[in-house]
Each structure stands twice: as structure tokens, then as C-alpha cells.
Amino acid sequence: MKKFFTTLSNIWKIEDLRVRITNTLLFLLIYRVGTFVVLPGVNPASLNNKQQAEGIAGLLNMFAGGAFSHASIFALGVMPYISASIVVQLLGIAVPYFAKLQKEGESGRNKLNQWTRYLTIGITALQAIGYLKSQITAEQMEIANPYFTILNMCVLTAGTMFIMWLGEKITDKGIGNGISLIIMVGIIAALPGAFLSEFTSRNAGAGGLVTFLVEIVALVGVVMFTILIVQGTRKIAVQYAKRIVGNKQYGGVRQYIPLKVNAAGVMPIIFAQALMFIPATIAQFFPKAASNSVLMALSDYTSWGHNLLFAILIILFTYFYTAITVNPNQMAEDMKKNGGFIPGVKPGKTTADYIDAVISRITLPGSIFLAIIAIIPALASMVHVTSAFARFFGGTSLIILVGVVIDTLQQIESHLLMRHYDGLMKTGRIKGRTAIPSADGTSQPVI
């Protein structure tokens, strides 16, 4: 405990770190206040905030910190920006123009960021119309259509762009990645209510407090398991040739390439979830098809058929996303240019094939573990854990929470070590985490 208070004291002594943490907390406070500001023309008294959204609406509501169900000006959150970033990133693989921008350094990244912002506006406008049509009923409107739709489409778009601006300010003036922290705060906002709901349910007789304590222990175990997956790496030794320039010697050292066991991050779960919502969508548009036994099984997220297909899709998408984000040929080429080589492996194509083989071997267990983490919430619901609390037992939310917390702590520790203070851990430095490439081709710890 003394070590903990000493570390806090050291953090507060560093003026730059103190200012950054204060700025981060203030920006996040502004975001949380905005999630409770209701859209203009919506009757707040008609909103049923206690109702829990399910399916993809429940997922969006969790990422938006409850703003989705509150009909807030921040209802769409940062998901349109995430979607735009993924689209621009994929364009960088398929379209030569965007691939060229990724290699142009700072100027190319600025152009890609501009493209991402324009695309975010378009995606947000379309999602805003869908949100207003599906989530706001005529009884809740105090302004007649089409003025209500046009007004709030502009408000929702401006709200998402304002959140983007907050995220950029947190990254520049605060600590950690701004967009990641905003998503994390939205997820954590639902934790106290879910915790209280589960405690009340167990205390009322559904298993008792002993069962509740067992659930807490299981949750801690799942978190530790997730940390192992996020932090797991396979190191490849790289030897650099010696070079003598004048009286100085360069190179001649051995370094390591850390290949992540889960290089795809949380993206395979997001892609798989998008496909798994298709059966439920078909059932909504075609009521007669909803009685089909196969469709019913796939629409029920607690069924074995649903979870088996979900796990298979995650494994496939993990291989797919790893293949498009990790380029062994580029790694081998960069290594060759810098005079590096893997001991016992010839430079060039042989090195690329070796790296590709290593990635393929570590991706299989990584994808299986990711699939297990993804279906744990459904398994928790099968043993009568409340749906709100079960979401924290795994899936997208838990991986995001673990990744963002580790990344933020790593940045705080860097500030401490740079000023000759002890780090946050007694046993050593906090290791890095899996980063998801952003639209500009750089690594961005988002989701």
C-alpha cells in the first residue's frame, strides 16, 4: 500500500503528467454530461431509460455509454468514425491511391485523416436517419416531421464530430488514446448498474450471495485470461550486421520482432457479430420465416448452434484480418534494408516465408482463445447471470477495457521512467498491447 501511495505522489509531482491527467478527466466529464442531453424535439418524460436494448442496439448503447437509449445528442457515439477508419484502411489495401498515401509520411496521413472525417460525416448522417426512424416514435416527438428528422440528423452528426474532436484533444493534451478512452468510459458507465442488478437478483434468492461471489471470482479469472491473450507475443530474434563509420561502430546487436498472438485485436468479434445479426434481421422483416427452427436457433444468442457458428466466424475472421494487417513481405524488406537478418534464415523471400509461417502457427491458438472469450457472455447467460452483467464476462467490451487500461498505464509508466522514478510494477515494466491499425496506416489502440 505504501508503494501505491508513493507512485501516486510521484505522478502528481510531474507537472506535465498532472496536467495531462487533469485534462483527460475534464474532457471525459464533458463527454459524460453530453450523453444525458436529449435531442431537441424529443419528450424526455416519454423515454423509458430502464429498458435494456438487445442485439446490435444493445451493443451500440453499451459503446455509447447509454446515450443510444437516452436519445442523446451523442447517441451514435464514435462508431461511425470507427466504421470510416476501417473502410479507409481497407481502401489502403485495395486501392493504389490510398496505398500510396499510406507511404507518404505525415502529408499522406493528413490526407487520409481528412478522407476519414468526410466519410464519417456521410456515415453518421445515414445512421442518424436510421436511428431516428427506428428508435424515436411519433409519440415521443414534439416537432412534426420532416423538420424533426432534418434537425436531429444535423444534431447527431455534429455530436459525433464533437466526440471525434474530444478524442483528438485527449490524445494531444491528455494521456492515452482519446477515442479508446471515450469508448472505455462508455462501457464502464454500465458496470455499476449491471453489478447492482446482479447483486439484487442473487440476494433475492436466485442462488444467494455465495453464487454472486463465485461469479466475481470467475470474472477476475476471465479478465486475467484476457490480459494473457492481449499481451501474448512470439519474439523472433533479428541480428543486425556491424557497420563502422569513422571511429564509431553501428549495428552488431540482436533485437526482437514481437509478433502478437492476437494481432487482429477485437475486429474479428465485431465482424462476426455483424454477420450473426443477419438471422434476427431476416426474422424481423419476414415474420413467416421467423418460425423456421434453424433461423430461431441462430437468432438466439444463448443457443449452441449460434455460439458454434459465432466461434467459427471469429476464427476465420482472425486469419483474414491478420492477413490484411500484417505484411511479412514488407517486414522482410524493411529488415533487409536496415541490414538485419534472422539467424539461420536467408534474407528476402525466405525470411518472409518464415515470418508468415510463424504468424500462421500463433494465429490458430490466438483465434481459438478469442472465440472462447467471445462466447463466455452467452455461457454466463445460460447459467442465469443477468444479461447486463454477462456482457462484462467477455466479448468486445472486455477486450477493449483490458487493452485501453494497459495502454494508458503504459503511457503513465513511460512518463515516470523518463523522469527517473520507479515504474508502476515492482516486477518490471508494463508490456505493450495489441494495437489496431488506424486509417492512416499507423497503429491506433482503439478496439
Automatic annotation (TrEMBL):
<feature type="transmembrane region" description="Helical">
    <location>
        <begin position="62"/>
        <end position="95"/>
    </location>
</feature>
<feature type="transmembrane region" description="Helical">
    <location>
        <begin position="178"/>
        <end position="197"/>
    </location>
</feature>
<keyword id="KW-0811">Translocation</keyword>
<keyword id="KW-0813">Transport</keyword>
<feature type="transmembrane region" description="Helical">
    <location>
        <begin position="306"/>
        <end position="326"/>
    </location>
</feature>
<dbReference type="InterPro" id="IPR023201">
    <property type="entry name" value="SecY_dom_sf"/>
</dbReference>
<protein>
    <recommendedName>
        <fullName>Protein translocase subunit SecY</fullName>
    </recommendedName>
</protein>
<keyword id="KW-0653">Protein transport</keyword>
<dbReference type="GO" id="GO:0005886">
    <property type="term" value="C:plasma membrane"/>
</dbReference>
<dbReference type="GO" id="GO:0043952">
    <property type="term" value="P:protein transport by the Sec complex"/>
</dbReference>
<feature type="transmembrane region" description="Helical">
    <location>
        <begin position="115"/>
        <end position="132"/>
    </location>
</feature>
<dbReference type="InterPro" id="IPR026593">
    <property type="entry name" value="SecY"/>
</dbReference>
<comment type="subunit">
    <text>Component of the Sec protein translocase complex. Heterotrimer consisting of SecY, SecE and SecG subunits. The heterotrimers can form oligomers, although 1 heterotrimer is thought to be able to translocate proteins. Interacts with the ribosome. Interacts with SecDF, and other proteins may be involved. Interacts with SecA.</text>
</comment>
<feature type="transmembrane region" description="Helical">
    <location>
        <begin position="264"/>
        <end position="286"/>
    </location>
</feature>
<dbReference type="GO" id="GO:0065002">
    <property type="term" value="P:intracellular protein transmembrane transport"/>
</dbReference>
<dbReference type="Pfam" id="PF00344">
    <property type="entry name" value="SecY"/>
</dbReference>
<keyword id="KW-1003">Cell membrane</keyword>
<feature type="transmembrane region" description="Helical">
    <location>
        <begin position="21"/>
        <end position="42"/>
    </location>
</feature>
<dbReference type="InterPro" id="IPR002208">
    <property type="entry name" value="SecY/SEC61-alpha"/>
</dbReference>
<feature type="transmembrane region" description="Helical">
    <location>
        <begin position="144"/>
        <end position="166"/>
    </location>
</feature>
<dbReference type="GO" id="GO:0006605">
    <property type="term" value="P:protein targeting"/>
</dbReference>
<feature type="transmembrane region" description="Helical">
    <location>
        <begin position="209"/>
        <end position="230"/>
    </location>
</feature>
<keyword id="KW-1133">Transmembrane helix</keyword>
<keyword id="KW-0812">Transmembrane</keyword>
<dbReference type="InterPro" id="IPR030659">
    <property type="entry name" value="SecY_CS"/>
</dbReference>
<feature type="transmembrane region" description="Helical">
    <location>
        <begin position="362"/>
        <end position="383"/>
    </location>
</feature>
<feature type="transmembrane region" description="Helical">
    <location>
        <begin position="389"/>
        <end position="409"/>
    </location>
</feature>
<comment type="function">
    <text>The central subunit of the protein translocation channel SecYEG. Consists of two halves formed by TMs 1-5 and 6-10. These two domains form a lateral gate at the front which open onto the bilayer between TMs 2 and 7, and are clamped together by SecE at the back. The channel is closed by both a pore ring composed of hydrophobic SecY resides and a short helix (helix 2A) on the extracellular side of the membrane which forms a plug. The plug probably moves laterally to allow the channel to open. The ring and the pore may move independently.</text>
</comment>
<comment type="similarity">
    <text>Belongs to the SecY/SEC61-alpha family.</text>
</comment>
<keyword id="KW-0472">Membrane</keyword>
